[in-house]
Amino acid sequence: MDPSLFFRAERNPPLNLRAVKSVEPAVGDGYELELRDGSRIEVSRRQSRELRERLSL
To answer: Under DSSP, is residue 51 helix (H, G, I), strand (E, B) or coil?
Structure first.
């Protein structure tokens, strides 16, 4: 897996960043990701920094 395309959010399997439809702020400085299939994944405050860098937020 190409590390530039995949991100591990919490204990979920690796997430293909191309599948992210939207990124919304969540409680506690984290994010909630909505995927193209309609599912939602929470990203903790700790992991949100890496996600911001990867997605240039």
So the answer is: helix
